[in-house]
Amino acid sequence: MTGDQPREIAVLGGGLAGLSLVLQLLDHGVKARITVVEPRHTYTDDRTWCFWDTEDHPFRHLIADRWPTWRVHDGTRAHRCTGTCAYARLSAGDVYAHALARIARAPNVHLWRGTRVQRLDGRRVQTDAGTLAADLVYDGRPPRLPETASGTRLLQQFVGRRIRSDRDVFDTSACELMDFRLPQRHGIAFLYVLPHSPREALVEATVFAATRLPAGRLDGLLDDALAQRLPSGVETLGSERGAIPMVPNLGERASGPGVIPIGTRAGAPRGSTGYAFLPIQRHSRALAARAARGTPGPVRMRGRITDWLDRVFLARLIARPDAAPDDFGRLFAGVPADRLVRFLMERGGPLDHLAVMTALPTGAFLRHAAAVSLPRALRPHPRQRAPVADADPDSPVPRS
C-alpha cells in the first residue's frame, strides 16, 4: 500500500549521512523540495572512510585505494590475510565534491550552509536562518551517547596524519589494520597504516577507552610510533582526528511523527568495530525507497542478532582489555578471510557467525554472552517495529 510522497523534506546535517540520503532520494525519484541544514560554511578533506568493497553504492567509483591483503599484528606475530573483496579507502573531499555537485544540479535541493538548528518542534525546524515547516524531517544531528542496559560502552579515539617520506618505506600491496605494538597504558591501542604509494600513507594511532583521552596523549602516541617505525625526512600532508562511539544499538527513536533519525543518531557505527560507511549507505537506500513509495518511516540500522553479538564482544573488551590483541589475532588467523569480511561488513550468515565465535576463547565468551542475556536481546521490542535496512525489499544486496 502506498501513499503520496512528501512535498517538503528537511535534512538536519549535511555530513555523510545527510548527503548520502539526499543522493538516494534523488535516485529514487523523490520530487519533494529538500532543504539540507548544515552548520559548516565550507567542506574540507577532513576524514577518511574505509570498508571492505563488498557492494555497490553512489560513491564506489571514487574509491582512492584498494588493498587485496591486510595485516594484523597481535604484538607477538603478524597475521596476513587475502580475501575476495579488497579493503578500500574513500577520501571525504572526493565524497563531498561529488555529492555537492549533484545537489547543485538538482533544482529541488537547497543546501543551507553555515546554518544551525536552534530547536526542533515536531516537524518545524527553527534555525538561525529562519523556520522550516516540513512534511518529513531526517535528523542527523550528533546524538547523546547513552549508557546501554548492559553497561557496555567504549569510545574509539584516533589521530591520523597523511605523511610523505623521502624514500620508499610502505608496502602498497597490503594495509595494516591493527598493529598492537604500542603501549597499552591508556586503553586498547594500535597503529593503523593505509599506504597510498611507496612514499605516502595515512598513519593513525587508535585507542579504545571508556573515557575521552586528551588530544596530546593521542598525538604523543602517534609521534612515538612514527619515530620508531619511519626514517627521518617525513613530511605531514594533512591530519584528521575523531571519536566514534562503540555502543550496541546506539540508535535513538524518532522524537515524534515524521521525524526520522539518520547517521550516528540512528546507530550507524557498529558497536564492536565503529564501521559506519556501508551501514549508512544501506540505511539511506532503504529510507529513500520508503519515501518514494509514499510510506516514509524509520528503518532499523541493523538486526538484533548483530546488536547482541556486539554487546558480547564489547563486554569482553571492557572486562579484558589486555586480551584484546590476542582476541583480534585469533579472529584474523582463525577465520577464513571472506567469512570474516562478511561478518565485519554485516553481510554474514549463521556459518560466518559460528566461525567467528569458535575462533575466540569459547568459555570466556560464553560467560559474557550469559551476562548480556541472549533471550532479552532477541525478544522483539513493542516500540521497534521498523524494518531493518538490510532487509529492505528494494535493496539489491543479497544476504550471505
How would you describe this protein?
This is Lycopene cyclase. InterPro entries: FAD/NAD-bd_sf. Pfam families: Lycopene_cycl. Residues 377-400 are annotated as: Disordered. It comes from Rhodovibrio sodomensis. The chain is α/β, with parallel strands linked by helices and 400 residues long. The chain folds into three domains: 8-147 and 247-302 and 383-391, FAD/NAD(P)-binding domain; 154-246, D-Amino Acid Oxidase, subunit A, domain 2 (D-Amino Acid Oxidase, Chain A, domain 2), CATH 3.30.9.10; 304-378. Helix content is 30%, strand content 28%. It contains ten helices and 16 strands. Strands 3-5-4-12-13-14-11-15 form an eight-stranded mixed β-sheet. β4 (65-73) and β5 form a beta hairpin. α1 (16-27) runs parallel beside α4 (277-292) and α7 (337-344) packs across α8 (350-359). The longest helix is centred in the last third of the chain and has 16 residues, at 277-292. The protein is globular, with a radius of gyration of 21 Å. Mean pLDDT is 89; it is low at 147-152, 377-385 and 391-400.
Q: What CATH architecture of the largest domain do you see?
A: 3-Layer(bba) Sandwich
**Helix content range:** 25-40%
Strand order of the largest sheet: 3-5-4-12-13-14-11-15
Whole-number total of structural domains: 3
Instruction: Classify the beta-strand content into a percent band.
Output: 25-35%
Number of helices: 10
- The CATH topology of the largest domain comes to FAD/NAD(P)-binding domain
Order of helices and strands: EHEEEEHEEEEEEEEEHEEHHHHHHH
Overall pLDDT metric: 89
Strand elements, count: 16
Please report the first level of CATH classification, the CATH class of the largest domain. Alpha Beta
Rg over CA atoms: 21 Å
CATH superfamily grouping of the largest domain: FAD/NAD(P)-binding domain
InterPro entries: FAD/NAD-bd_sf
Pfam families: Lycopene_cycl (PF05834)
Organism: Rhodovibrio sodomensis
Protein name: Lycopene cyclase
